[in-house]
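help with this.
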Amino acid sequence: MLRALTSGLRLPRPWRPLRTRSCASHGATGDPEIQVRALTGRDQGITEILMNRPSARNALGNILVSELLEALAQLREDQQVRVLLFRSGVKGVFCAGADLKEREQMSEAEVGIFVQRLRGLMNEIASSAVMGLIETTRGLLPGAGGTQRLPRCLGVALAKELIFTGRRLSGAQAQALGLVNHAVSQNEEGNAAYHRARELAQEILPQAPIAVRLGKVAIDRGMEVDISSGMAIEGICYAQNIPTQDRLEGMAAFREKRPPRFVGK
């Protein structure tokens, strides 16, 4: 169960527009489609990316994808970021998927380039949270890794069924199939999923950041290859973690029966 959190939660650091190298980081309304906020206090180390494109239900258009890629590139270099949360500024929707209205205006070459960038974005996020692959209902093929990630999550037969039918899933159905880890009852403010995600972020936050990062690499890369190659990747990641200060701190904390103080080195 989620613990009670008030809708009036206030944080000292405000949302800030993404600082891009160019000035073309705003949508047609002049408002930024991506904003970034670093949390403070007990949540220090958690950074949130807010998607805010209400006119298109946060559909992934050129500007939104560009800003997301730029945000991820900037945050990757920030050693203070331990956990990254994606959230929506549009009530009742997280992301409507690719912007099909925008894509309709593209040439075939432009579509190919856009799909490649979208696939790169999905690889950066490394997320398999899918509520429905409805591309076939629009005469399209899932092009952001859906035909590759979904079979690994569900198996080939069920993945084909979902893609071929374009079926939409409820949160409970997605959880039952293993597409999402958690399904929560919605609250009056419409942000129950965000609060659950933040609770999970708070659980991750105190863990050794290098070990978490290397664990993610081992899992993501290992899923792409056979088991023997995956074990080799795990061994490489394990070896990289051995000389870290955090590993020594973890061992010392265990020996001294105290909480560890990880520094990410």
